[in-house]
Each structure stands twice: as structure tokens, then as C-alpha cells.
């Protein structure tokens, strides 16, 4: 019972911390970490927690849900034009960042180059949870091209960082391991992860559509299972599970399935819950009393990462993609580190790599500096570069948009002879850009979903284009199209 009480209190404290964070301009994820640290062994909460395998396992599962939610919220049509530069940043950019940071860390800390490169790999990727949270918080509005680039990069660069971290641990512990074997393994993981994610995303949408579940509340259970299966199956067959769940989310967003809108909202809420749980757990794993010993080195590595390694990993890639220098500068600055480096820092702990404990707290300090400095200054930097404004646009009235465009509302009674009778909305051959808004049946009005079956005598209110209204009326009224 005390554990249940503590969990509820920590979650509630984190939610209110996120509200305070938006007011004072600090990323909410930073306060989630702070709540965990205060509740831990060295804090006033005094909760004893020192379990790297558990922290790692929870972090991996949480990150899978965060990436799936991010993919499900990604419009492929918007990110497709920047897919090439984003993939290059997620691979070559991460590799350059890891190499430079590793070289600097080995020189600064007086450790072997392989150990320095391990530290560089751990902090090499931007964090999807942190980037999604900042870009979608409303505190900064970026051009669609840059926003899509940053979100796609942050959602797809974690597999590279995971691969480098695991590979370098293998090189440190196994003298028979070679870089060539790791390179082959990398291409296999990325290829299998991409193909598996695409296949499971298509299969997931098909399962949701054909399940015909009696209770709407069971559909989120299906998609939760899909996330776990996508990661687990891909990992078992040798692919990148993180890449698979992200690709599966993007693929599902592109197709129609039942309760799509409500499932997207569910996974957005699930992603926030996972972010909070992940950051709280990682905060509990940290011992604040040990941060003082790594403060100087952590600050030096953090600023080298922000001002040298990340820009040198970004500028050459984006220069080839015809991005302006100020756009390159902003992308380089939005290199937020978050929970992913801390999760990766548990890998050496679990593998019992020498100096792993020091690495963990060093990485934690680097993340704190990155989140505090970069996370709070992104709106200011964007305005100084002339790429964004902190003001939010006044939302337009939906009805005004309908009247101003090529749209109109149609009110039709479904005839018994209509071909739509007995079929689900998802199965109807509706004209493009047509939306069934309300169905009235036996005096009861409701909003139809993809699984709603059309009955004879239903009164349907639909929004459609002016050029397609006649064919829609004919479809519902059971007569031939004029």
C-alpha cells in the first residue's frame, strides 16, 4: 500500500510540476527528473531505489510507447520532403556527434578512447520525448519544414545511439569483436526494423478494423499489445525494436481504422504517462550527492556537445539538403538530450563496465545541462534567428472555414434500397473529403465512427465538397447518380 500511495503522489506531483514548468519556461521533463531525485534515497522523500536493470527495462518499454505515440502523431505527407536529411542526421549526424564527444571525453577525463567513445555514444542522440514535448508545447512555433525535420530526426535517431552503445560495450568486453561485424549488424538491424515496423503497422490497422469488438474500450488494449509485439518481435528477429514501433506508428497514421481519433488521443496520453514514469524512475536511480564530483567534467562535456559536436554533425548534412545557415543553426541548437541517454547509461551499469557508475552520473549531469540551457532557450534562439515567434495564432472558426471553402452540409434520409444499408462507415465508398457528422436514428442523434453500421431510415448529416454533394446524396438516397 505505501508503494501505491507513493506512486499516486509522485504522478500527481509531476502533473502539477508540468503546469508550473510552462509558466516559468522550464521543460516539464526537467521537473519530472527533479521530482524523482527529491523522492529518492538522497532526497527528503527517502525512497530507497538502486536497481539499474529495472530502470533500464522500464525505460525501454516507456520509450517504445513514446516513439509509437510520436509516429502515430506524425503526418507522413509533412515529413516526407525532409525524410532524406532527417535520416542522414539520425545516422551520420549521430555518428559524428558520438565520435567528437568521445574523443573530447577521453582527453578530458584521461580514459581510454573506447571508453570515451562509449560515453559519446550514450549522449549522441537527441531525445524524442524532450523534442516532442518542446515543439508541441505551444511555447515556440517553427516553420513546418523545420518542425517536421526535428521530430523525424528525434524519433529515428535512437536506434543508432543504442547500436553504438551496445557495440562499444561489446568491443570493450570482447576482444574478438570487430568494427566490421558491428557494421554488418547495424545495417541488418535498421533494415529489419524498418520492414518489420511497416508490416506490423499495416497488420495492426487491419486487426483493429476487423476485430469488431463489442466494447470500444478494448481497442486501446489492442494497440497497446501492438506496441509490445512490434518491439518484441523485431528485437527477437534481430532488428531495431525502437525503429519498428516508430515506423509502425507512422504507417498506421497513414491508413484509416476504427476509432482512429480516440486511439491517437489515447496514445498521446499514454506517451505522457510513460514520460513521467520514465523520468521519475531515472530520477530515483540518481544519487544527487554524487553529482558534485562530476559537475565540472559534466559541464565541460555538455557545452562541447552543444557548441561543437552537435553543430559539426548537423551543418555538413543540412548544407547538402539546401538548408539556410540560420536553419542549420537552429537545428543544431534543438539537440535536446533527455531520458534516452540516461537509459543508455544503465547499459554499462548492467554490463558491469568499469567506471559505469561514474558514467551514469556524468550522463545525468550532461542531460540536466542540455535540458536546462537548450530547452529553456529554444524560443529565444528561434526568434533571434528570425525563424519563429512565441505568439500563437488565433484559431479559426471551423464553420467559417467550411463556408469560405468548397464545402457544404448535406442532410439526407437513408433509403431502404441504398447500397450503404448494413455496411460500416469505414466500408462505404464515400467521395473524397467527405465526413459523416451526425446520424439520427429513432430520435437519438450521435456522432458516427468507422464502426457505425448504417440503417435504413437513418438521417445523415454530412460535410462534403460542393462538386460531390450530388453523388453523395444519390449514394445515401438509393438512386442513381445524376
Walk me through the structure.
With 482 residues, this protein is mainly alpha-helical. It folds into 2 domains: 2-384, Up-down Bundle (Na+/H+ antiporter like fold); 398-477, Regulator of K+ conductance, C-terminal domain (Alpha-Beta Plaits), CATH 3.30.70.1450. Helices cover 66% and strands 5% of the residues. It has helices spanning 2-24, 28-39, 52-72, 76-79, 83-109, 113-122, 128-135, 144-156, 158-173, 179-210, 219-236, 241-254, 260-285, 295-320, 325-333, 339-351, 356-384, 398-404, 469-477, and strands at 407-413, 435-441, 444-446, 459-465. The protein has a 4-stranded antiparallel β-sheet with strand order 1-4-2-3.
Going across the major beta sheet, what is the strand order?
1-4-2-3
Query: In CATH terms, what is the fold-level topology of the largest domain?
Result: Na+/H+ antiporter like fold
| Helical percentage | 55-70%
- Count of domain modules: 2
Q: What is the arithmetic mean of pLDDT?
A: 82
Q: Main β-sheet, in a few words?
A: 4 strands, antiparallel
- How many E strands? 4
* Gyration radius, in Å: 25 Å
Provide the CATH top-level class of the largest domain. Answer: Mainly Alpha
What characteristic shape results from the CA principal axes?
A: elongated
Could you spell the SSE succession in H and E letters?
Answer: HHHHHHHHHHHHHHHHHHEEEEH
Identify the CATH architecture of the largest domain.
Up-down Bundle
